[in-house]
Design goal:
mainly alpha; 2 domains; 8 helices
Amino acid sequence: MAQQLKDQLWSGQVGEVIVALQRHADRLGPPQATDVPEHPRRVLANNVGYFTTHRHHMDYPTYRRKGWPIGSGVTESAVKLFNKRVKGTEQFWSIPGVESILSLRALWLSQDDRWSRYWNTRPAYSKAA
């Protein structure tokens, strides 16, 4: 069943996933006060709620067509790259200072000529360029 649900999500059939989960949840009944967090009734209820609430975030076919990443790996990697610049021994930042350095880091990591365009618009650097 897990593979079937995964395939349905991948192909954009979130509604079918919700229906299947709800069908199983209805069969088991609502969570009971004595159910531990791992009890199937509670797990199913949580998953039905999650997929229902976030269904608009799961248009994976459209995301793939647009070349957007699916999953958190890209975000986690970006956070690590940012953190390398602002977290380190003997590094202390004021709020304005860290905001400035993070903005510059974002320009550099964008890899789409933003870094060059930014520096070419700075008076002291555009003359040198």
